[in-house]
UniProtKB/TrEMBL annotation:
Residues 1-58 are annotated as: Disordered. Keywords: DNA recombination. The keyword Zinc does not apply. The keyword Zinc does not apply. This is Tyr recombinase domain-containing protein. Transmembrane segments: none annotated. Residues 222-462 form the Tyr recombinase domain. Pfam families: Phage_integrase.
């Protein structure tokens, strides 16, 4: 007999009842199939949705019988597979399973304007290695064991019963790409959404899972930057000269010079203001970065750019600049402050120091802590809008310069930092001092440039020669 209805109408008895299942309240519940009614002419199956905890009704799809739907729901609940869809951020009906998480992840890559090759790579990894191994489970049931199995299968490859290769094993670089794809799925699941996160922040299906490639050079850490990827000084100087000649931005050559000989990250370069330049001591105060959300160029999103008042690793530092940059900086500061070309160095120093004092008074302490509106700041490297460009806009301009001097495309602009560190070392600076300038600790710095066994191998050879 069916349960009594609150409106007094006669209830429809279930034609099939599943096994008892525990609920959070402690009371058991069961899947029930109900015969056709005027409101549900093909019948319906009622169950508690494991994602929401709410009672859910599902009707048979075209060509599906009520018994088939009932059996599928029971099997899905037993195996913790995705069931009925729920509403997500924009009100769309979304099943919170791994397949739909993958689609949201790929869409986020499109929104970030990733290349077609990058998207094709990630799509292939998901379809070939992730979905077939983990299956269409609910995201909340994605486990560490699932992630480890995906990577283990990919590294081993797949063969049929006759021993023929069905899927070739992935090499270290592709396995790292696969691990990065899983990390992208995890980050997507952790995102705050109107309908709630798909995974809480304390749930990590990649906890303890290692997917980084091992170093290809004996004695090197995985962060080691081989000499072939370090910009040569002659190429750097050629890039500075070419920027001065062909760039649409008058400041581009100075920006490249600061990158190559001061070791600033691109976001730190673009975030520089006049007040950050210490002409008296010939130093740059690095205390913030230029931020542009990745979706800033997409329709319907804010295009606001802003300066974050701390660096990537939250270490403020001062870095000396080379003598060749001094006159260029003074010229750029005059332009930024709209001063006459004949303004003396002493006047520029006085202007900057007074501005630092003013900001310190307003901040009640450190001048770096005083916030100035983006449009009112005196930027060193602005585009025609009056604020610094996006990283994408900067890179487009850099690529023109790079191609004009036949710069190797695999040596990225960010590797200018490596040039600065090794240029300092070649000029007699200690690794400790270079680490202060670079913003890293000494251990991290050495992992980039020094083979761990370099000194020991030399000593070992000397000993062996004497035996």
């Amino acid at each position: 007999m069916g349960r009594p209805r609150s409106d007094g109408a006669k209830s429809v008895p279930p034609v099939r009842i599943g096994k008892p299942r525990p609920s959070t309240s402690g009371r058991a519940w069961r899947v029930r199939a109900y015969a056709p009614t005027p409101g549900a002419p093909n019948g319906r199956v009622s169950y508690r949705n494991p994602e929401t905890g709410k009672q859910t009704n599902q009707v048979p799809a075209a060509g599906e019988t009520l018994d088939t739907l009932f059996d599928n729901v029971e099997r899905a609940l037993d195996q913790r597979l995705a069931l009925a869809p729920t509403k997500d951020d924009d009100g769309a009906i979304v099943v919170r399973n791994l397949t739909n998480l993958g689609e949201i992840y790929l869409q986020s890559l499109r929104d970030k304007k990733r290349s077609e090759a990058y998207l094709a790579n990630r799509t292939s990894l998901l379809a070939r290695w992730v979905y077939p191994v983990i299956g269409d489970v609910l995201v909340e049931d994605w486990s560490v064991a699932d992630s480890e199995k995906v990577l283990a299968n990919a590294r081993a490859g797949e063969r049929d019963a006759q021993g023929n290769v069905v899927k070739a094993p992935l090499g270290p670089a592709r396995a790292e790409d696969l691990g990065s794809t899983l990390a992208g799925l995890r980050q997507t699941a952790h995102m705050k959404r109107t309908g709630g996160r798909w995974l809480s922040l304390d749930e990590n299906p990649l906890e303890g899972v290692s997917y980084g490639r091992s170093a290809a050079i004996q004695g090197a850490s995985r962060d080691y930057v081989p000499p072939s990827h370090r910009p040569a000084t002659e190429k750097v100087l050629a890039a500075i000269a070419m920027a001065d000649e062909i760039s649409k931005w008058a400041w581009m050559s100075l920006c490249v010079l600061i990158a190559a000989f001061c070791g600033l990250r691109l976001s730190e370069q673009l975030g520089l203001r006049v007040v950050d330049i210490d002409l008296r001591n010939r130093e740059i105060d690095v205390n913030g970065v230029w931020e542009v959300p990745r979706n800033a160029e997409m329709p319907g999103y804010s295009r606001e750019r802003y300066r974050r008042p701390h660096t990537k690793n939250r270490k403020r530092r001062t870095v000396p600049y080379p003598g060749t940059a001094h006159s260029l900086l003074m010229k750029r500061i005059r332009e930024a402050l709209d001063l006459a070309p004949q303004t003396t160095e002493a006047d520029l120093i006085e202007s900057i120091e007074k501005e630092r004092e003013r900001r310190a008074d307003l901040a009640g302490g450190d001048w770096r802590d005083h916030h100035v509106a983006t449009t009112e700041e005196d930027w060193l490297f602005p585009d025609p809008s009056g604020v610094p460009p996006t990283k994408e806009g900067f890179n487009d301009e850099w690529h023109i310069i790079r191609d004009a001097i036949s710069w190797k495309t695999y040596i990225k602009y960010r590797n200018m930092r490596h040039h600065a560190a090794l240029w300092w070392k070649a000029n007699g600076h200690s690794w400790g001092l270079i680490a202060e300038y670079d913003g890293h600790d000494v251990k991290t710095l050495l992992s980039y440039y020094v083979l761990a066994s370099e000194d020991e191998r030399g000593k070992s050879k000397d000993i062996l020669k004497g035996l």
